[in-house]
Write a structure and sequence with these properties.
Number of strands: 36
Structural class: mainly beta
Strand content: 35-45%
Shape: rod-shaped
Radius of gyration: 58 Å
């Protein structure tokens, strides 16, 4: 049956129990939603020195349920923004669901954006919100400034003031008019304040923005360490690790490997070189001062001065020095002076390792070819192909008494000899002529049918000349005469070579 009424006395035969929800509905008919009294009641404020806001003592009323902050102001923490501004709301949230059944003050967080939007309040189901204030949370700072808080208590669309029974006063128009005036005056006062600060900026005054930036741009401190885990307490102290936070630290002990830094107990983060690589042993020197910037993930060392190469002391000329990741290193490579000339011999010649200030010349010889090296003998990587050869001399290795023949028009061969070994042979022969008719006569040495010796024309004469052949070539004797009846004789043919021996008798 969709009807009810109350409130009535209970009897033994007819008990009447009423839940708190029905009492709330009853009182909601008389008292509208909002805060009581206004003024500073449930006002949201900030000191401008940290990320906290506080709600002053006061009473609120939502749909027949009472809320209060009593004895002392209630403190809420606002989470810092990262890389963009954000608008949050401080709200009173009524939640009538069985697990909650309470009104609680909380920070309703918005979304970071270049142009941030205020988050919407909820008024459906078991949840009903009143908004006490808006907070502009600036990017990259952990401090809430008083001027970034917008009071919404007088805006009856989101909160309002309880003025009496049945209905709350509609203060929306008053609130909007006041807010417009406040915004105008705030802009004027801020402009005047900035002008004042610019006029006295060199006289020792510090603004809250300067303090915020001072925290962001870094404090100084000496580290303590447990092995490669370093800790430091910076002054001024950051309240959160945000991208761009700078820290200047004096290292109390050299690192022995990959290292981390924990700033003001906000969590250990890796220390990386400017190129993004981890530290090597000894990179951080004891009592040296380093500047680091937090990139949102790690602390990056600043002022590294660029990349280093891979040279080590043995690869640098002594006593020159080179900058490395672990500092200045003195070279150990010896200076050997001029390179000089190396003439090959029968033994190895070692040029000591080091630096030579001029070229090293290894002498060569155009005669160093395989055909000039004894066959099958290796020399500097070449294997010889030259067979044994004779040189001309007086040691006879071949004799022939006579070659004879006739010819009256052209040269013809009358004999020849083919040595098995190449070389230069001393060839000797005696030319004569026989016949009844007087005519001219000629003789000449050929090699394989090609004239090689001098044309001889005087008979009864002994001729000697050196003829060079290759192994297997034939030394030939060719003749002709001016008359076919004449014979030309090549007599006493000898081939002689250079040969020496020593004899002894016993």
């Amino acid at each position: 049956m969709p009807q009810k009424s109350g409130f009535f006395d209970t009897t033994a035969d007819d008990p009447r129990d009423y839940p708190a929800r029905e009492f709330a509905e009853y009182f909601a008919r008389f008292v509208g939603n909002g805060i009581f009294s206004g003024g500073t009641k449930l006002k949201v404020s900030a000191t401008g020195t940290n990320a906290n806001v506080k709600i002053e003592i006061g009473f609120g009323w939502i749909n027949g349920y009472l809320y209060s902050v009593y004895d002392e102001a209630l403190t809420l923490t606002v989470q810092p923004a990262t890389n963009a501004d954000r608008i949050d709301r401080v709200i009173l949230r009524l939640d009538t669901s069985t697990p909650v059944r309470a009104i609680r003050a909380m920070v309703l967080q918005g979304n970071p954006a270049a142009t941030p939007v205020v988050p919407a309040i909820t008024r459906s189901g078991d949840v009903y919100d009143l908004s006490l204030a808006q907070i502009l949370v600036k990017a990259n700072t952990s401090v809430v400034l008083p001027e970034n808080i917008t009071d919404e208590r007088l805006n009856s669309a989101v909160c309002g003031v309880v003025t009496g029974l049945i209905q709350q006063a509609d203060t929306t128009a008053i609130f909007n008019q006041f807010q417009a005036w406040l915004n105008t005056k705030t802009a004027e006062y801020q402009a005047e304040w900035r002008a004042f600060l610019e006029s006295v900026q060199d006289e020792g005054f510090a603004t809250t923005q300067y303090v915020d930036n001072r925290v962001l741009t870094g404090g100084y401190g000496a580290t303590t360490n447990s092995a490669n885990a370093y800790s430091v307490t910076l002054i001024p102290a950051p309240t959160a690790l945000v991208a761009g936070l700078r820290a200047t630290v004096r290292i109390n002990a050299a690192n022995t490997g990959v290292a981390t830094l924990n700033v003001n107990g906000l969590g250990a983060k890796s220390i990386l070189k400017s190129n993004g690589t981890v530290l090597t042993s000894g990179y951080l020197k004891v009592n040296s001062v380093y500047s680091l910037v937090y990139n949102g993930t790690n602390f990056i060392l600043q002022g590294e001065g660029g990349e280093y190469g891979t040279a080590v002391a043995a690869e640098v000329l002594a006593p020159k020095t080179i900058g490395t990741e672990i500092g200045i290193v003195t070279g150990t490579m010896p200076d050997r002076g001029a390179g000089g000339t190396v003439i090959p011999g029968t033994a190895d010649q070692v040029k000591a390792a080091g630096y030579y200030n001029s070229a090293i010349t290894i002498k060569g010889d155009p005669n160093l070819i395989a055909s000039n090296i004894k066959k099958n003998v290796p020399l500097y990587g070449l294997v010889g192909t030259a067979a044994m050869e004779f040189e001309p001399g007086d040691f006879s290795i071949y004799t022939r008494s006579t070659y004879t023949g006739q010819s009256n028009s052209s040269m013809r061969m009358v004999g020849g000899v083919t040595p098995s070994i190449g070389g230069t042979y001393r060839v000797s022969f005696h030319m004569t002529r026989n016949g009844g008719v007087s005519a001219w006569s000629e003789a000449r040495i050929y090699v394989n049918g090609v004239p090689r010796g001098t044309l001889r024309t005087v008979v009864n004469t002994t001729y000697t000349e050196d003829i060079t052949i290759k192994a297997g070539e034939e030394i030939q004797f060719w003749i002709r005469s001016g008359n076919a009846e004449n014979y030309v004789y090549v007599q006493n043919v000898t081939l002689s070579v250079l040969y020496s021996q020593t004899e002894r008798s016993t």
